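Fold these two proteins, one after the other.
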Amino acid sequence: MKHLYYNVSFNEYKKVGMLDIPEDWQPFPIERSGVPVENIDKLILTLKNGKYADFMFSVGCAYFLSPRLKELFEHYVTDSTLIEFYPVPVVSEQYGDRTYYLLHFTRWCDVRNEKMTSFMPRSKYPARMVLDYEKVCNLSIFNRDSYNIFFLMRDEVRRAIKREKMHIGIAFDPVECSGVPEELQKKGYACANPRKPIWKCLSFPKGKIW
């Protein structure tokens, strides 16, 4: 089965470099969803330990896009008030200087199916994260909750990135979605169903020593 949405994160692919920030740079982290970006016009990044790619991650917990990946994102963005792109120069003695774009989400998106999402014990991190189709059906690239490491995109965007061969260094992890319309299920897209956590499904005979 296919999935409608995917978590997107940086995959430390051996050929992709890391974007370094100046020593003692403030603010740190560089970018936080829902918080205005500061001092970005003064930031200069340095490419280290690898080559350029279309999708890059920096010290300071921020994602940066090449001009052509930014253009692809802009093509699929359905809410222009949700995403901002800030140009930032990147320097490299070996590969030359380039301009990349900081990806910034202006707010957090409420996208979870609260009844079907379950969490790790004593944690706010979902053990099983389920999206609500009614909440995400009009979104193509968005964030979720208050967790900066991942953002999400619709399968259509993922396929476009891979088709244009801009996926090096990107990890796509499928995310469950509830309420997927029947017409999409007929096209092979999975629809999440309620299920008990595994520890509630287990039963052991009384008095049994394990």
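Now the second one:
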Amino acid sequence: MLKLLRPAVTRILTPLGRALARRGISPNMVTAIGTLGTVAAALFFYPRGQLFPGSVVITIFVLADLLDGVMARMTGPGSLWGAFLDSTLDRVGDAGIFSGLVIWLMLDGQRALAMVALFCLVAGAVVSYVKARAEGLGMTCDVGLVERPERLVVGLVAAGIGGLGVPYVLAGGLWLLAVGSAVTVLQRLLHVYRQASSSAPRPLR
């Protein structure tokens, strides 16, 4: 669903990306700054219980994940290093966001919900790993109910609204993410299994 919004967001970010590129700022620099800002904001605001301002600041830095892609397309074909760096730092950013939530929930005495947030972090990493491993073996795995954009939107919106004092929103968002992520892992495993079962056996290194 969120992929449908990418063209509109790209048009909005294009002037900013062009201006940064003219000043010699590379897409990889934007990726690194976005991740550093995301992790720093999550670990500063969330453990203090400042969920709304934290979510706003994190959202600003998360937009760098789209901006670096816009800039990469402007400056020519994307590099292998850039693609690798972007995927790796995505995992770091996700870890920062959900770790901040886990710390706050533990400090606030909401241990059960902290475990749900921890499950969201682990399941999100597994979702990404299954796709990367499948593509590394020459298969496709672009399926699933909850991918990274959905995880970020649901998580940040739930945390932000919960930080305004609206009850049950954070808990509902985290449980929704937990269930959706588990379903996505199963969807991807089944998708890869079908491809592997229908292909001829071949030696693997």
